[in-house]
Write a structure and sequence with these properties.
Jelly Rolls, B30.2/SPRY, 3 domains, zinc, alpha+beta, 9 helices, zinc ion binding, about 30% helix, metal-binding, ConA-like_dom_sf
Length: about 550
């Protein structure tokens, strides 16, 4: 009893009617700690005394409305121990008198996890909630199904004073971890729990209480973190978001303004080039008109002179008259010939900036590329079609196909099934595995037979080809080749063609970087065309 008395600490509080008074939490632990607790004084905090023992903070509530205070009967003292339970029983007054004299009610005691209610010789009776008195930090109780707690019985009371084993009639003093139930010593020694891990009810209850306390601390820290986030982090984001939005808006305006200015300058330059070219052609046409009008007049004069000679001179005069100088003058006037100088040069509107802006815009606005497929009827015997939509080069042995007018019989070429007469079209090719390939566009009138340039991609006027051989890249059309300088070999190549606008662009789909662009005029429907001389290439969907 003396040991129990040393563990009980009480605090004087005014006599109150717990059911009618309005309470507020105190700012200090009422359990009589001799050392300040760690952290804020909130229900459920664990602090350490100078004696080195752990205990749970218990807080009394100070009445805010003294008009509602009534005295509490001294024969029914209120014990508050760790949870939101009120305890009464015999022997309390003896403990109180030995602990401290003239104790006023209500009061609170400190529950030490290492000690149980049995140590204090208390018996549970009339368990009832006292949430008006103390805010309970241990709201979550152990599961009744796991602890085999009888319905209507407090988990604290069941674990503190075990019941009786239905099989052996002994007290339930052990807890079986495997079966999650209370057992007696007979169940452990001779029953079904012989090989199971067990522990005393007191130790198991202590473990659960410690877990609950730890959970309370975690919840308190989590709550504090949320409150700090609400009070500090979120309000601080508001001005940051506003400033970032302003900066983003200014950046957008500045960049678009810069782009507009560049586009306006480029537009003005190109329009001036067009106007200059138009004036040049018009001036040439005017000059040619004046020249040929004058020549026509001279020829008409010579002709009239010769007609007069025929009609007015006799034979002798005609023989002796010198008229050869006039005929020589007529022979000096040549026939008119077609000249490119009298045609508008479309290359005057070539602009790398305009081409890239146009291609980038089309690529960004293009939702999907064309679904292009290989035309197996045109496939060279040096190529094979795979199920993964790839075109493979047969290095060792040519494949035997049924010959036909559409099949390439010498060069490793293959057309696509699709043909585009007008509009803007785009498709992508995976060239990662190959170091020797060709891809581009051609008219379907391209020759299919023989080894001549008429059937060789890029060596005739009906095909426009981007090719790679080892580390060399180039663009070819009608046997004219342009070297394309690239920092690295692209894994994918996209082909973009504007048939009506006469624009052909080869680009890298990953970075939207234009590899090469070409301006021309298409006079017939075009089809994608491919050639492979190393490994394989494949079409992307």
């Amino acid at each position: 009893m003396g040991e129990a008395q040393e563990e009980v600490r009480t605090c004087h509080q005014p006599q109150t009617n717990l059911s009618s008074a309005n309470f507020q939490a105190t700012s200090a632990c009422v359990t009589g700690c001799r050392a300040p607790p760690r952290g804020s004084l909130l229900p459920g905090n664990r602090c350490r005394e100078q004696t080195g023992r752990n205990h749970i903070h218990i807080f009394l509530q100070q009445p805010t409305e003294m008009s509602h205070l009534d005295s509490v009967p001294t024969e029914s003292p209120v014990w508050v121990i760790t949870g939101s339970q009120s305890w009464t029983g015999t022997g309390q007054m003896d403990i109180l008198q030995t602990a401290e004299k003239d104790i006023k009610f209500p009061f609170a005691v400190e529950w030490i996890p290492d000690e149980q209610m049995a140590t204090l010789s208390l018996e549970p009776s009339g368990v009832e909630k006292t949430t008006d008195f103390i805010e309970n930090p241990f709201e979550e109780q152990p599961s009744p199904t796991k602890l085999q707690v009888q319905e209507g019985t407090s988990p604290c009371a069941q674990s503190s004073i075990p019941g009786t084993c239905n099989d052996h009639g002994h007290h339930l003093s052990l807890f079986c971890y495997q079966d999650h139930k209370l057992i007696c010593h007979q169940c452990k020694s001779h029953g079904t729990c012989q090989s199971h891990k067990t522990n005393s009810v007191e130790e198991r209850a202590t473990q659960l209480r410690n877990k609950i306390v730890d959970q309370c601390e975690k919840l308190q820290l989590q709550t504090a973190g949320i409150e700090k986030y609400l009070t500090d982090a979120l309000p601080a984001k508001i001005p940051h978001v506003a400033s970032t939005a302003r900066a983003s808006s200014e950046m957008i305006i500045q960049r678009l303004t810069f782009i507009r200015n560049v586009c306006d300058n480029e537009e003005q330059r190109l329009l001036e080039e067009v106007h200059t070219e138009e004036e040049r052609v018009q001036q040439g046409i005017s000059t040619q008109q004046a020249h040929w009008i004058e020549s026509s007049k001279k020829l008409s004069g010579i002709r009239n002179y010769l007609v007069d000679m025929l009609t007015k001179m006799d034979d002798i005069s005609l023989i002796f008259f010198l008229f050869l100088h006039r005929t020589e003058e007529a022979e000096g006037i040549l026939e008119p010939e077609e000249s490119n100088k009298l045609n508008f040069n479309i290359n005057c509107v070539q602009s790398p900036l305009l081409n890239r802006l146009w291609a980038s815009t089309v690529l960004c606005l293009t939702t999907a590329c064309e679904e292009v497929t290989f035309d197996e009827k045109s496939m060279s015997p040096l190529l094979a079609f795979a199920e993964d939509n790839s075109l493979k080069f047969l290095q060792k042995k040519a494949k035997i196909y049924q010959d036909g007018p559409e099949r390439f019989d010498h060069w490793p070429n293959c057309l696509a099934n699709e043909s585009f007469p007008k509009g803007i079209h785009c498709w992508k090719v995976n060239v990662e595995k190959s170091c020797a390939y060709k891809l581009g566009i051609t008219y379907r009138s391209i020759a299919r037979k023989g080894a001549s340039n008429d059937a060789r991609l890029g060596f005739n006027p009906v095909s426009w080809i981007f090719s790679r051989y080892d580390k060399d890249f180039r663009f070819s059309h009608n046997s004219h080749h342009e070297v394309v300088e690239l920092l690295k070999s692209p894994k994918h190549i996209g082909v973009l063609v504007d048939i009506d606008g006469g624009e052909l662009v080869f680009f890298d789909p990953g970075s939207c970087v234009i590899l090469h662009s070409h301006k021309t005029k298409f006079t017939a429907p075009i089809s994608p065309v491919f050639a492979v001389a190393d490994e394989s290439i494949s079409l992307e969907k």
